[in-house]
Amino acid sequence: SPDYRNSVALPRYVRVNTLKTTVEEVIEHFQSEGYVLEEPIKILNNLSPKTIRKDFHLSDLLVLPPNTDLHNHILYLSGKIILQDKASCFPSYICSPSINSYVIDACAAPGNKTSHLSAVMKNTGKIWAFDLDKKRLRLLEKLTQKAGCKNIEAIHKSFLDVNPLDERYSKVEYILVDPSCSGSGIVNQLDGLVDSSETDQSDLSQKSQERLKNLSEFQIKIILHAFKFPSAKKVVYSTCSIHSQENEQVIKGVLQQNYNFILANRNDVIPTWDRRGISSEFVDDDESADKLIRTLPEDFTNGFFVACFIRKSSYMESAA
Ligand code: SAM
After folding, report:
1. Which residue from 32, 261, 278, 293 has the least number of CB within 10 angstroms?
2. What angle do CA 100, 255, 307 make, to 5 degrees?
3. DSSP H helices in 96-133
């Protein structure tokens, strides 16, 4: 696979923070600055300067041309818009916790998905946001406060050490699992954390293979831990990796080791999104890959992966 980093300019995606404003208000604001509203489209290349459009797939997302710098924009500074890549908006959108529900964000910092969950829940119910990294968790507190979220409790703790049978979490129905990954899908990676050789699977050094194996084992473990929460009915897993070891192979591992959760049907996992999981990873199983989401820079987003597990019984109920 080609090395995408430093080679693609993604559109400037703007997630409207519906806790503070509306999509219409934000569009009007940009129009007052001379932006022209255009129709939603799937193929987002050659976006003209000073154009704005609703995203084709996500209702709270707007699309502006690449390299539009909004870091000093009043709507950003006031927390009314959040600058977040399209693919990383998928997990909270797919999770879609209902109003007044109880939610865990297992690996939450710096919190863009947490504030998105909070907005989907309209600031009702409760989100427990765990993270191992204290500094990143402080950032989560700052960012979610700026976004006007009032239903989040940030906890500095490994999610693996959270007791699923603790009474506090007895009503948790939705769990988001966005754990550490190789980051190999991130375009224009600035922090240099990822070894560039990792984007080509055939070239993976032994060290990288070892690292992927460790990540993959950790990812399986953390999903299986989420399944232990007695009221959990939906568990959404995501990575910003393009490696099947952290994506399809993690899903296979999880499905082999538990009998209570299955993959949600494509209809509940952004059915209009065309790029699905890699089917050759699932031998004798024609259905699973289609239930998964992959994104690549060709889709005008970072490389990303999302899977949505649901408890078997809740699937049976909804099918009945
Ligand atoms: N969900 C975040 C967002 O959208 O802003 C990004 C999460 S980042 C991909 C992964 C996070 O997992 C890191 O902040 C890392 O500190 C955290 N992490 C790693 N191991 C963990 C564990 N055992 N329990 C909780 N958090 C963990």
Report:
1. 32
2. 50
3. 112-120
Please give the tally of structural domains in the chain. 2
Instruction: Determine the distance separating the centroid of ligand 1 and the alpha carbon of 278, expressed in angstroms.
Output: 25
Tell whether the model's pLDDT for residue 195 goes beyond 50. Answer: no
* CATH code of the domain in which 72 resides: 3.30.70.1170
User: What are the angstrom distances between the C-alpha of 7 and each of 3, 139, 178, 251, 298?
Assistant: 8, 29, 26, 30, 11
Beta carbon of 136 within 6 Å of any ligand 1 atom: yes
The answer on 25 and 130 residing in a single domain is no
Active site residues: 240
92 lines ligand 1 (CB under 6 A): no
Q: CB 58: neighbour CB atoms within 10 A?
A: 18
Which ligand 1 atom is the nearest neighbour of the CA of 181? 9
Q: Is 113 annotated as a binding residue?
A: yes
The answer to whether the pTM exceeds 0.80 is yes
Residue 5, pLDDT > 60, answer: no
- Domain C-terminal end among 52, 85, 118: 85
CA distance 23 to 2: 36
- 197 in the same domain as 252: yes
For residue 130 and ligand 1, the question of a CB distance below 6 A is answered with yes
Predicted-assembly ipTM surpassing the 0.95 threshold? yes
Tell me the residue range of the domain where 298 lies: 88-319
178 lines ligand 1 (CB under 6 A): yes
